[in-house]
Predict the 3D structure of the following.
Amino acid sequence: MLAHAGAVGQAGSVALSPAPALAALLLGSGTLHFATPKPFDAIVPRALPGNARTYTEVSGVAELAIGAALAVPRTRRLGGTLAAALFVAVFPANVQMALDWLRSDRPAPAKAAALARLPLQIPLVVAALRVRRGA
C-alpha cells in the first residue's frame, strides 16, 4: 500500500521517504557510469593521479552498492551515511565540469546549468542524512 511509503501529509498526500528516490538516483547513475562512461571520464578532476576511467568505474561501483544499500531497509542507515559521503566526494567532479563548461563554447544555458548543479549537492547530502536518521 502507498501509505507504507511515508507519512501521510495534512492534505492526505503521501510524503515519500527520500530513501527510494536516492536509491533510484544512485542505481541509475551507477549504471550510466558503465553504459556511457565517457561523460564521467571527462569530469574526473585532472589533478587526480591515474586513469580517469578507473575513477569512473570505482565511483560507478560505489553508486550501485550504495543505491542497493539504500533500497534495503536493513542496510539503509549505512546507505544513508555512505550516500552523504559520496555526494561530498564527487563534488570536485561537479566543479571540474562547471569549470570546463564555462571555458567551452557551450551555449549560455548549458553553462548556467553546470553552475546551478553545484549547490544541488546540498539537498542530496541533507536527504542522505535524513535517510540515515530515519533508518
Remarks:
- The CA atoms of residues 40 and 56 lie 6 Å apart.
- Residues 18-134 form one domain.
